[in-house]
Design goal:
By secondary structure, this protein is α/β, with parallel strands linked by helices. The chain has two domains: 5-128, 3-Layer(aba) Sandwich (Rossmann fold); 136-216, Winged helix-like DNA-binding domain superfamily/Winged helix DNA-binding domain (Arc Repressor Mutant, subunit A). It contains eleven helices and six strands. Helix 6 packs across helix 11 (200-216), helix 8 packs across helix 10 (181-195) and helix 9 (170-177) crosses helix 10 (181-195). The longest helix is centred in the C-terminal third of the chain and has 17 residues, at 200-216.
Length: 218
C-alpha cells in the first residue's frame, strides 16, 4: 500500500477546521497530522512535522494565509500549500501563487473534491477553482497577438505591469514609484484595455507567458 499523504490543516475557525479534519480523516490515503489555529502555529507545526501538504485558510487573523504560505514555503520547500478561501478574488489568487501556493480552492468545495485537490497537489499538480481558472485559461490560450499588445504599453505602463506580476497592490506600486493610488488605478485600467484582458491577474499571466516565450527565443 502506498504511503498516505500527510496533511496539516490551518484555520482560525474551530468548527470549520474540525469539519475539514473529520472529512479528510475518512479518506484512507490521507493522514491529518495536526491542526493549527493561526499562521504562526502553522509554521511551527510545519517545521516540526514536515507535512506533504498544508491546507491554509487565506483569511486568518494575525498572519493571513498568504503571509503564512510564504513563510512555510521558505522554511519547508518540499511542502505544498493549498489555499482555502470564501471569495473569488483574482488579486489574492495571484498573491497566493506568488507566495508559493499550488492551489486556490473555494470553501464551498465538497469534501470529495477537496480530497482530490490535495492528491493532485501532492503529486505536483496545480489547481485553481474553475470559476477563476476559466478567465485565465482564455488569456493563456490566445495566439501570438499579445506580443504586439505588450509592445503598445508605455515605459511607465510596462513598469507598473511588472510590479503587478510581482504581486504588489495598487497602493504598494504607488509607494514604489511615487504616484498616488488613484493614478496607479488609472494606469491599470489602460493596461487592461490595451492587453484586451479583464483583470490584473490575467494581465500578469499574459506578461509572464510572453516573457517566457521571449526568453526561450524563436
Amino acid at each position: 500500500m502506498a504511503e498516505r499523504i500527510r496533511i496539516l490543516v490551518a484555520d482560525d475557525h474551530p468548527l470549520f477546521r474540525e469539519g475539514v479534519v473529520h472529512s479528510l480523516a475518512a479518506e484512507p490515503d490521507l493522514a491529518v497530522l495536526g491542526q493549527a489555529a493561526s499562521g504562526e502555529e502553522a509554521l511551527r507545526m510545519a517545521r516540526d512535522l514536515l507535512p506533504d501538504v498544508v491546507l491554509l485558510d487565506i483569511g486568518m487573523q494575525g498572519w493571513d494565509g498568504i503571509m503564512t504560505a510564504e513563510k512555510i514555503t521558505t522554511a519547508c520547500p518540499a511542502t505544498r500549500i493549498v489555499m482555502l478561501t470564501v471569495v473569488e478574488d483574482e488579486d489574492k489568487l495571484l498573491a497566493s501563487f506568488k507566495a508559493g501556493a499550488r492551489a486556490y480552492v473555494l470553501k464551498g468545495v465538497s469534501a470529495h473534491d477537496l480530497a482530490g485537490v490535495l492528491r493532485s497537489v501532492a503529486q505536483g499538480e496545480v489547481y485553481v477553482t474553475p470559476s477563476l481558472a476559466a478567465g485565465i485559461l482564455v488569456t493563456l490560450s490566445r495566439g501570438p497577438a499579445p506580443h504586439d499588445a505588450l509592445g503598445e504599453l508605455t515605459e511607465r505602463e510596462s513598469e507598473i505591469l511588472n510590479l503587478v506580476v510581482h504581486g504588489l497592490t495598487n497602493r504598494e506600486i504607488g509607494d514604489r514609484i511615487h504616484l498616488s493610488e488613484k493614478t496607479i488605478k488609472h494606469y491599470i485600467t489602460n493596461i487592461l484595455e490595451k492587453l484586451h484582458v479583464r483583470s490584473r491577474v490575467e494581465a500578469a499571466m499574459l506578461a509572464v507567458r510572453v516573457g517566457t516565450r521571449r526568453s526561450e527565443g524563436p
